[in-house]
Specification:
Elements (H helix, E strand, L loop, with lengths): L2 E6 L7 H16 L3 E6 L5 H12 L5 H25 L4 E4 L6 E4 L6 E5 L2 H8 L3 E5 L2 E3 L5 E3 L4 H12 L4 E5 L5 E2 L11 E2 L4 H9 L5 H20 L33 H13 L5 H10 L3 H5 L6 E3 L2 H12 L11 E5 L2 E3 L4 E3 L7 E4 L2 H10 L7 E2 L2 E2 L6 H4 L3 H11 L8 H13 L4 H8 L4 H9 L24 E5 L4 E5 L1
Parallel strand pairs: 1-2, 1-9, 2-6, 3-6
Antiparallel strand pairs: 4-5, 7-8, 10-11, 12-13, 13-16, 14-15, 17-18, 19-20
Length: about 500
Amino acid sequence: MKIIVLKFGGTSVGTLDRIVKISKIIISYIKKKYKVIVVTSAMSGVTNELIKKAGKISKNFPNSERDVLLSTGEQMASALIAGKLCDLGFNSRSWMSWQIPIITRGNYSSARIVKIGTDHLKKYLKKGGTPIITGFQGLNKESRLTTLERGGSDASAIMLAKFFKAKRCIIYTDVEGVYTTDPNLTKNAKKIKVLSYEEMLEAAYRKGASYSRRQEIKVSINAVFSWAVNRKYIALDTSPTTGAEVCAFPGETKGEKPKIIKTLDVMRDALARAQEVSHRWFPIWFVACHTGMRSGELNGLRKPDIHLIPQEEAEELDRKIEAGHEKPDCVSYGLIHIQRAWVKKSQSIGETKGHYSREVDVNRELYWFLVDYLPKAEWGSDDHGERVFERIEAWNRGGEAAVIKAFFLQNGWGNMTFHVMRAFWATQLLKAGVGVNVIMKMGGWKDYDTMMIYIRNAGIEVKGATSSLNLSLQGRAPKRYKGVSGDNVVLFRRN
């Protein structure tokens, strides 16, 4: 059978008029002699409304009953689509997950699909029927309904395509492409022309994404690869996902600990590459390397927190530095006041990790970057002022480590974390001779035990470090001594 899976999201089935439109889309594939499997989300807004009702009934609403409640949203949408297809003269019916069955494993509200029965649906497809399947749900070993994570209808469609060996899996949406944020909610949402490998990994490996979600993405990649092989677009016969652990990144050694970047060249190469590909995280990484700010502090940074000197004064300093009248490391172009941070648990702006504010110096390079960047940074505002950086959902959920990890591994720089940039900042300042107390104050460290980690990893050159010591009496240069070996001791005598 030539099977195709069509998935329609909540907004696509949000109104009766849209249901009529998607019914015509489904019919167009039927007329092309496809055996069509349709997966539907709940109508737009229905799931949120059901969640509100559960919260009003009880503040301790059982997760098992919550899943039963939420599954009714997809059930309503599937019945409406099937009813419309029947009205247009086509054989169609709704299928609940338990009728197929779609078997899941894991907790309520975050289950994952492990198996899908094919016998009943195959018989129905052979008879010319068009099944409309409820996405986002399945059946556990206790025969209870379970739901997947939000967006789980996509996972349902992908897994159905896998188990039925579908020719294609098409996910329909109400927007014309992938955007930086929801264009229905944000006016400044921009369409992404090219979705990079790094951004795909960001979505796949963000903290908070379940194993099932990552597994389903792996399945999707494998399906696309297999399709390309079958169409002879590529000659390889083995998918790049074959044998790959879902929890691991390409090139990562199991158990490998993140490294501290000890050289400027590596970080320069990394930032240059990020800038070259217009990586959406480049401005964040650039400022992180210049300030040593924590991820949450950068996420909570607002324009009123940045205090730069006037450009006329900065230009004058530049002239003095270039003329040799001032050293670059002896002048300041401004200060960044760090007084708040994004708190993942509460999903809001709160105190810094150390529970106190501090300031970090702005150097020449960072100054001119900010002068150019800040006027273009229009990411909205809140009670604390205008945002400096783009609101990235994965960042809010703690997924910043996954992004830099994927980027560094892909480019052959090893296993890194977001904290690497803070460590890099500290070690480079130590190598440059900046006092430990100054670094501790700017970085917000309270004790020397933590700083010792960076001191040990700074790659500081030892050779010649003691040349400034002069312990001779009366400031005179010491006379040369020659060692003579005894039986058990080394004796010294004057020449």
